[in-house]
Amino acid sequence: KPSLSAWPSPVVPQGQHVTLQCQSPLGFDRFRLHKDDRTNVPELQGIIFWKNFLMGPVTEAHAGTYRCHGHYSHLPTLWSAPSDPLEIVVTGLSKKPSLSAQGGPVVRSGENVTLVCSSESAFDQFHLLREGVNLGRPLAGGQGPRGALQAEFPLGPGTPDHSGVYRCYGSFTRSPYSWSDSSDPLYLSVTENFPIPIISATPSSVIPWNGSVKILCQGTLESYLYQLEILENLTYKQVEKKLGFQEVVEFIINHMDTNTAGRYQCRYRREHRWSAPSEALELVVTGLYDKPFLSTDGGHVVMPGENISFQCSSAYISFDRFSLSRPGGATLSRHRDARLQGDFTLGPVNLSFSGVYTCYGWHSGHPYVWSAPSNALELVVTEMLSKPAIWVRPSFMIPKGRSATIGCRGAGEAMEYQLHFEGGLSALKRPKSSPVMNWVKFPIPAMTSHTAGQYRCSYRSGELWSELSDPLELVVTGLYDTPTLSVEPRSEVTSGENVTFHCQLATATSTFFLLKKGRSSRPQLRYGNLRAEFHLGPVTPAHGGTYRCFGSYNNHAWSFPSKPVKLLVKAPHEQLLCSSDPDHLLWNHMIQNLIRLGLAVLVLVALMGFLLEDW
């Protein structure tokens, strides 16, 4: 008997053609076909062919079981026995089912593999094919967990031979050769000693419009071919292939736009087999919409274990998705809430959360096309509270009996403040609730020698106290007589000269201070009994200004201030113009007279012009 086969496959989509091939080692030169169910297929009636018979376009009537017979042309009445039956299946006669793999399409060798074919249609049997080859008897459908009809195809412990592209079909027992349309293809990968490749993007997977990006695919040194793919729904499309025995290859996208944004994966080929695909890499293009605004309710400095919330909002574009991003960190995405913003709560945070954050807005229909980046906010997670800032108003020098206010500002959510005076605790305060400021005031109602001295402050957040602030030195003035201040050689000098200030007090003291207006936080100190000298020079115009001096027995209790002395430092050319030398004065008068004479001539010429015009 001859053998009967179909090319390219006995499973034929409706409307396509199929070639039936009848062959025999006995050298028959004539063949004929018949259909077991004896339905009328017009093109088969009375047809005798030589080896190949093209059938189609196929319809449901072509579905069924076929056999062929052979004979010799010189013995037309002697036919061979029939071939074994060949089942021709016609597909596309109803909606397609869906195919999935329990546990995912990538499995390790030895793990059990089960494929599930399901459909909303009332099929009573399902068929599974790999690379177009039917894998055996159909399975009856049963009720699935979500109400759909389904059949489970157990493939057993997976081996690399199970790898391939699978499809499934549904049908009815009354028409066993009339099947549904094919399911979407499912690529099953059974790996054995092949590490899954690692895919990454540099400098980032979030790329500005028209920017470039490198996609790195890491395989093994034995890999001789790499393939980059872009995912499209349940399938993938090849983007590029690269040859080379290397562990890492680069795929470059020179210009990012909406067509190149999407989900990518890569795989490598080794020992004539493909590896499993890498995890998906999402490439996002940014800058297609105006940037949103990023804010936070609390401070930017938090302690480990605390939570922090960011808000991303747009005043002009109704985004329905927002993403929070940090270089080198994961990107978080959120739905828009009732306030038209995305809320992101991080925490409990640790030191790895520190960094600069930005946010983006986008639309759910285009998940890989984002806005321009928002303003940047830096988050600092520290195990040590930062040092607070301390200051005083109106000045660090306060006349006796006058009031002053010390301010202290902490970082983050400060709950309590302490003021320390001369090394001991002086006052304790809790800040008032404020969305803008986090600081407290410590008032001094009347300044005395007992309230003058060195102050520091600290604050508490949670259970942790900060370190002390830098020292603040407060001075009370008006406790002694008024000193006198003079300057030598004179109060107006030329740049480069040396000057000396003399501060003198009628009653004996131990310390003198010289202060320049505008630089009162850095006084000069000299020791003396009744008099002290302060040498400056060579002076520059920066030394010019108003000076006062004080006398004191300690660093925080001073006398009344002296009367102010103004020092004027002139540049050399200014000195030349202001010189009182008689020759210079004579020269200056001559210049002035020449200027006056020139102006008079110009006026006279102008008058003559007017007269001539009238005449």
UniProtKB/TrEMBL annotation:
GO terms for biological process: cell surface receptor signaling pathway; immune response-regulating signaling pathway. SMART domains: IG, IGc2. The chain crosses the membrane at residues 594-612. This is Natural cytotoxicity triggering receptor 1. Residues 483-566 form the Ig-like domain. InterPro entries: Ig-like_dom, Ig-like_dom_sf, Ig-like_fold, Ig-like_Receptors_ImmuneReg, Ig_sub, Ig_sub2, Immunoglobulin_dom. The keyword Transmembrane applies. It is found in: Cell membrane. Pfam families: ig, Ig_2, Ig_3. PANTHER family: MHC CLASS I NK CELL RECEPTOR, NATURAL CYTOTOXICITY TRIGGERING RECEPTOR 1. One of its GO terms (cellular component) is plasma membrane. Belongs to the natural cytotoxicity receptor (NCR) family. Its main location: membrane. Keywords: Cell membrane, Disulfide bond, Glycoprotein, Immunoglobulin domain, Membrane, Receptor, Repeat, Signal, Transmembrane, Transmembrane helix. It is a single-pass type I membrane protein. It comes from Bos mutus.
